[in-house]
Amino acid sequence: MLRLMLPLALLLSIVSPVRAEPATAMFAGGCFWCMESDFQDQEGVLDVVSGFTGGTLKNPTYSGNHQGHFEAIRVSYDPDIISYQQLLDLFWVNVDPFDNKGQFCDKGFSYRSALFPVDAQQTSLAEASKKRVEERFPDQQVYTEIRPAGEFWPVEEYHQDYYLKNPLRYKYYRWNCGRDQRLADIWGDAAKDH
After folding, report:
1. What is the pLDDT of residues 101-125, one digit of tens each?
2. Catalytic residues
């Protein structure tokens, strides 16, 4: 009897499901602490890092100079579990797209909302999602920008996972900033369902 011998790597690829490589998405929605907490616990999200993107300044820091950058998050996710479209849907119900001066109580260029697609497919999906928001709110100006993804600069370590490290301060800040109240005004139950 002839036995067929397959290399172990080939055999494992036949019996093991092929896992997609982690994908990356970048979003700006005001305070990166709040955006990080809104995305981190989603099924399929592998990691969320707070930082800066969108500007030309090298090595921006929170306590130093970050001029021209947005406060942003970089989301690593498993596209077999959560899609970029689902992340976009989550993004929109966590921002005030009508505020061009910042987000909630945080004002200034770095606190504005923006999408930073990393490739053509994400760009197409981001543009379509923004169009749906504009159609849903025809009497409002949607200021959320779509900008090409640039280099992402993680912020200082004490800002990472701030909502976990300092839960009372974080909750106090978020409540006093009026973030959840404003999101409920704009998005209704969709803001509460995430």
Report:
1. 999 999 999 999 999 999 999 999 9
2. 31
